[in-house]
């Protein structure tokens, strides 16, 4: 199948639209300190890149049995990361232009392991929300990445078959999920080196490479 034979592109959010992975980590560890836990903990944040907050807090509770409930911890972390994102507005350079150009030729979806309030806050930056016809978040599915459910749901809402979708991801669980959904996956090296993303259909390091793959070699000069 030709790279430019598609009907929809589904974006991950953290690490693809917004440079939020380090900010999620910062918020997580700030909340830990606030509730009385200091590093080092027997919990490796890197293992949760691309996965939901629900999973990391569930594992933290299982290991450390804190006084705070899962709902309280999720709320504290959510409020902290929202503060940071709204203050810093860390949209990746080149992302806005790519989304705008793709929106002219296909339907766009977003499939994020973050909670709905965080997703909507990010999409409010640079008025990105108007480009996305479907948005699926962690709270609307039962099984997060690396399971394919979130991408399959996005394709359903977009009204296209999984095989007609490209996924843009930065994480290893996200790549696995996109491929398991029967989609083609472009992995961008914002979070992991190329070698760790080699299972993806294509691996790139810049947004103009995605533009060239999906819109043609002359896309950046249009």
Q: What this model shows, in words?
A:
By secondary structure, this protein is of the alpha/beta class. The chain folds into two domains: 144 residues, 3-Layer(aba) Sandwich (Rossmann fold), CATH 3.40.50.1000; 68 residues, Orthogonal Bundle (DNA polymerase, domain 1), CATH 1.10.150. Helices cover 41% and strands 11% of the residues. Strands 3-2-1-4-5-6 form a six-stranded parallel beta sheet, sandwiched between helices. Helix 2 packs across helix 3. The longest helix is centred in the middle third of the chain and has 19 residues. The protein is globular and about 55 Å long. The two termini are 25 Å apart. The C terminus is likely disordered.
Q: Key terms for this structure?
A:
41% helix, disordered C terminus, Rossmann fold, alpha/beta, six-stranded parallel sheet, 2 domains, DNA polymerase, domain 1, 6 strands, 222 residues
Order of helices and strands: EHHHHEHEHEHEEH
The number of helical elements comes to 8
CATH classification class of the largest domain: Alpha Beta
Strand order of the largest sheet: 3-2-1-4-5-6
CATH superfamily of the largest domain: HAD superfamily/HAD-like
Strand content: 5-15%
- The backbone outline, from C-alpha atoms, is globular
The description of the largest β-sheet is:
6 strands, parallel
Number of domains: 2
N-end to C-end Cα span = 25 Å
**If you compute it from the alpha carbons, what radius of gyration comes out, rounded to the nearest whole angstrom?**
17 Å
